[in-house]
Write a structure and sequence with these properties.
Non-ribosomal Peptide Synthetase Peptidyl Carrier Protein, Chain A; 90 residues; disordered N terminus; mainly alpha
């Protein structure tokens, strides 16, 4: 698979997962603002973060543990996508 296609697929999957957990009706809203702070806007809280972590771990077959969660790395969709891209490449 083309590396760019993999990145696009991962990014779309992350945005869909955030939308599901945060109950955002349109993924395009997230796609339009990849730097929105998910915590300051109350789209994510501690419970939703754990839900998202489990969902992403399952969908992308990546071992994610709540113990290693750095809220700053998960603060925006862009940061979360970057974090998962790095984790997926190992």
């Amino acid at each position: 698979m083309d590396p760019q296609a993999l990145t696009d697929t991962l990014a779309d999957g992350v945005l869909v997962a955030i939308a599901e957990v945060a109950q955002v009706s349109d993924v395009a809203d997230l796609r339009a603002n990849l730097d929105i702070n998910l915590y300051e806007t109350h789209l994510l809280d501690s419970l939703r973060t754990v839900e998202l972590l489990l969902l992403l771990s399952d969908r992308f077959n990546v071992d994610l543990s709540p113990a290693e969660l750095d809220r700053e790395q998960w603060a925006t969709p862009r940061k979360l996508i970057d974090y998962l891209e790095q984790r997926s490449s190992h």
